[in-house]
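Narrative of accomplishments. A recurring question from our advisory board has been how the design workflow behaves on a single, concrete structure rather than in aggregate. To address it, we present the structure tokens for one chain from the evaluation set, followed by the sequence designed for it. No filtering or post-editing was applied between the two.
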């Protein structure tokens, strides 16, 4: 590919311009995407971003089920047993409230969203409904974990007395 440059002796902003087309600079994939499909590959980045959000929220239920969310174990280790159990119950209530509020907010947001994705003609509300499913899965798992904690009176972490 040849590049035309402004003369170096001219002051001011210099811009590089492409002035010719070289077919050797492109691969078969470029031609297939742009000319056969009638679209550039720009849609792949947008879809990858949305899929990353979906995988993150769907995987959140696995983190809730296994209890691998980020927490500060320091407090549990150096508190008396009754206080650590009280803190576990409090954390369970806060988690349930957080996931319930997140699910409700996402549901309301999905109902209000009418726009389409930028490069693909799919409603953005589909993304919000997947996030809603992720929040509902996390809510269900956090309720399940809270019931186990309340029945067994066992703390969330095995090192807690």
């Amino acid at each position: 590919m040849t590049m035309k440059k402004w003369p170096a002796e001219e002051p001011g902003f210099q811009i590089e311009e492409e002035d010719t087309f070289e077919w050797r600079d492109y691969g078969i994939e470029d031609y297939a995407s742009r000319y056969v499909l009638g679209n550039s590959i720009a849609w792949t980045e947008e879809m990858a971003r949305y899929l990353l959000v979906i995988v993150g929220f769907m995987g959140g239920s696995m983190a809730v089920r296994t209890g691998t969310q980020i927490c500060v174990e320091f407090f549990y280790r150096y508190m008396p047993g009754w206080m650590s159990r009280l803190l576990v119950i409090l954390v369970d209530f806060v988690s349930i409230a957080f996931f319930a509020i997140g699910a409700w907010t996402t549901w309301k947001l999905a109902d209000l969203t009418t726009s389409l994705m930028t490069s693909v003609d799919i409603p953005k509300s589909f993304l919000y409904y997947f996030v809603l499913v992720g929040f509902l899965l996390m809510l269900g798992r956090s309720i399940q974990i809270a019931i186990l904690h309340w029945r067994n009176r066992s703390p969330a972490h095995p090192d807690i007395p």
